[in-house]
Amino acid sequence: MSTHPNHTPILELLPAYALDALEPEEKRQVERHLPTCEICQAELHVYLSISDHLPLAAPDADPGPALKRELISRIQPPAASRTASPTLRERLQRAFAAPRLGWAALLLVLAVVTGGLLFRQAAAPAQHTQYTLVGTDAAPEATGLILVDESGQATLQVNGLPPLEPDRQYQLWLIDANGQRISGAIFSVDQNGHTRVTIDSPRPIQEFSAFGITIEPWGGSQAPTGERVLGFNL
Q1: What mean pLDDT comes out for the span 160-177?
Q2: Which of 220, 60, 231 is nearest to 132 (CA)?
Q3: Of 148, 149, 197, 225, whose Cβ has the fewest other Cβ atoms within 10 Å?
Q4: How far apart are CA 169 and CA 96, in angstroms?
Q5: Residues 94 and 27 reside in one and the same domain
Q6: Which of 11, 5, 16 is nearest to 43 (CA)?
Q7: Model confidence over 32-74: pLDDT tens digits?
Q8: For the chain, what is the domain count?
């Protein structure tokens, strides 16, 4: 996979993307770019790992009003640069209001304000593995990304998959060198064709030689029965 040369604007959007605080067009811009850029994928993986785990590890508490105001004021843009669209400040205020998300949002904002040094230092020793899934003729605009962190935990992120009928779901298959297929996840997508799920695998992801996503009945199948929409090394 190549590294996209124009990833810098996307890097600036990744903290808000991890908090699901982007406007729809910005979100689509990030999701179109991610499969093409290893740098942005690695950065996003760090932010997602933090936003996934810190809300559960932190006690039920909300940052004090004074601390919130100070942080928000530091990222507030000059009046001349404001537009009718919600600003990053407004989006982060919404993120702060989400249940159990206050401290995760606070720490992500601190990373942006300080140049990301805290998270980069924490992630420096980590080794990540990633696999890019490519859309088939059934879903040519779809993209998928499997990220494996240093602990072996794997996450699947897909974009551009068509929403299915209520009695259908997508199913991820983990395929070993002998062609045996193991179900790794059963999922649906939102109206924009996006979702992110944790992969349930009995073995390290690196032991599988291929991955595929098919359309299956609701609740999944014992073996692939439907049309394949995404794949890696197939």
Answers
A1: 95
A2: 231
A3: 225
A4: 32
A5: yes
A6: 11
A7: 888 878 778 877 877 776 655 555 555 555 666 676 666 666 6
A8: 2
DSSP for 88-140, written as a single string:
HHHHHHHHHHSTT-HHHHHHHHHHHHTTTHHHHHHHTT---EEEEEEE-TTST
The single-letter DSSP state of residue 22 is S
17 alpha-carbon distance from chain centroid? 8
Block residue for tokens 């997602």: 48
Q: What predicted TM-score, i.e. pTM, was given to this entire model?
A: 0.52
Whether the Cβ atoms of residue 39 and residue 7 lie closer than 8 Å to each other: yes
- How would you list the strands of the sheet with 228-232, edge to edge? 181-187, 168-175, 210-217, 228-232, 129-135, 143-148, 154-159, 195-198
Cα separation of 190 and 154, whole Å?
21
Task: For 79-136, write each residue's pLDDT tens digit.
Answer: 554 455 555 555 555 555 554 445 455 555 555 544 444 444 444 444 578 899 999 9
Give the range of the structural domain holding residue 135, as residue numbers without chain letter. 129-232
Name the 3-class secondary structure at 142: coil
Q: What is the chain's percent helix, strand, coil content, to nearest 5?
A: 40, 20, 40
